[in-house]
Design brief:
two-stranded antiparallel sheet; alpha+beta; about 40% helix; membrane; transmembrane; transmembrane helix; about 450 residues; seven-stranded mixed sheet
């Protein structure tokens, strides 16, 4: 397949075969790769734009270096013929291909060293090179529009083909000059790939604010809990009429208090947690995606690292508790009297719903959908940002928190739990009480 691809690319871009060529194009494709993508695919296929460039350098029998990004080559050919990563503001370095103990080399030097090694290893073969680069540029902002996350995924594929060519006589008249043609047989294809992810964010500038919000909210919860324990102890001392110990009586009083009253009833800590979540939510998604990234289709997860990722993922429990508090407040305001109690949502239900989102970033190849939905050629404008500025919304993946993966998964889990509760209520209504399905709440 790679052999046919290289042949088709050379035939398309280099009909004369005596100069370098480049093809730039953009693709829009579906990106269904994780569970939270899969469960909402009926509503959104999570489209993504990518910029690509296909390069075929001109190689002769005396070529020892491709010199893809060298300044000397850049002065001899138009700037568009240089791959995009040559103009990248950051220098992409990788380990030395021949000796890992040597200092890291630049990407284009790494490509040259590998080409020279293949040239020395197969001196009697004709080498062809096709370079394919791909970029996925995205920008994400928080709801408060104060934090930003610019993300860039770079992929470079270098295909080197070695062919053994034999000259064949194509003339039918022996008395005329006899032009010759070559019949080539592919001997090997070397497929080498480079990948790099870059994140630019101002989250560091907001770290103190975010830490202060979460720290104050957490301190408020602990102080509230300690005061509650103290109040229960005072009540246990004042009303001690049995032989039970004060500790046992205090614990019995505490367990009768609903969990949601202790943790989620106060809007002050919940609001602090939610504001912090809105500031760093997108970076949280990037962290979880990198944690669940697989190598070769397998992932090795330790208990400590899994608990750490779970703690980060379940930060959305505070957003859920705020939504529940606002919904319950609206219901309670609808009338003054509710009989023997007032409506509420159990804290365990809130925690259970948030727990369902833990495995949202998990990926499975059988669910993957990367079908290309749009493709078009773009002009040879050289710099990446020249293309981006021409249509920033069309080619740049822009989003904000409300459309991030964790929020989408949270909304799905809320709907799932609500429908599950409705189903249980229908079952309870449909069965008589003497069967044992109905119970008092």
């Amino acid at each position: 397949m790679l052999d046919a691809f290289m042949t088709a690319a050379r035939r398309k871009l280099r009909p004369l075969g005596n100069e370098s060529a480049v093809l730039r194009y953009a693709t829009k494709h579906n990106w269904v790769d994780r569970i939270h993508h899969y469960v909402v695919r009926f509503a959104s296929t999570n489209p993504a734009w990518r910029l690509h460039s296909l390069h075929i350098p001109h190689i002769t029998s005396s070529t020892q270096s491709l010199a893809i990004c060298s300044n000397a080559v850049a002065t001899k050919r138009p700037p568009p013929l240089r791959p995009r990563f040559c103009n990248h503001p950051g220098i992409w370095k990788v380990d030395h291909p021949l000796n890992a103990s040597l200092p890291a080399v630049r990407l284009w030097d790494h490509i040259d060293v590998r080409f020279q090694a293949l040239r020395q290893l197969y001196p009697d073969l004709v080498l062809d090179v096709v370079l394919l680069s791909s970029q996925r540029l995205s920008a994400t902002t928080g709801v408060l529009q104060s934090t930003y996350y610019n993300y860039e995924a770079l992929e470079v594929v270098v295909l080197t083909r070695g062919r053994r060519c034999v000259d064949t006589d194509t003339a039918t008249n022996s008395s005329s000059e006899q032009p010759t043609a070559s019949t080539c047989t592919t001997f090997f294809i070397d497929d080498y790939r480079y990948e790099s992810d870059r994140v630019q964010t101002n989250l560091v500038d907001w770290y103190a604010t975010i830490a202060l919000l979460r720290g104050c909210a957490q301190a408020y919860v602990w102080v509230r809990l300690l005061l509650l324990v103290h109040g229960a102890y005072v009540v246990a001392v004042a009303g001690k009429r049995t032989s039970e110990s004060l500790l046992t009586t205090t614990m019995l009083i505490l367990v009768k208090i609903p969990f949601e009253v202790v943790v989620y009833s106060s809007l002050l800590p919940v609001t602090g947690y939610v504001i912090a979540l809105l500031l760093d939510s997108s970076f949280m998604d990037i962290f979880l995606d990198s944690f669940w990234a697989t190598v070769g289709g397998s992932i090795n997860i330790g208990l400590v690292s899994f608990l750490r990722s779970t703690a980060v993922q379940m930060r959305n429990v505070w957003l859920l508790s705020l939504l529940v508090s606002l919904a319950v407040f609206g219901v309670r305001r609808s009338r003054d009297y509710w009989g023997d109690g007032i409506p509420a949502v159990r804290g365990l239900a809130i925690c259970f719903t948030s727990t369902l989102t833990v495995f949202g970033p998990y990926k499975k190849t059988t669910w993957r959908d990367t079908n290309i939905t749009d493709l078009f050629e773009i002009a040879d404008e050289g710099q990446v940002m020249d293309i981006i500025r021409s249509n920033p919304v069309g080619h740049y993946n822009i989003s904000n928190y409300f459309f991030d993966d964790s929020a989408v998964m949270l909304m799905f889990c809320i709907n799932a739990v609500v429908w599950l509760a409705v189903a249980f209520n229908i079952i309870e209504i449909g069965f008589p009480a003497d069967i044992g399905w109905r119970h008092e709440t």
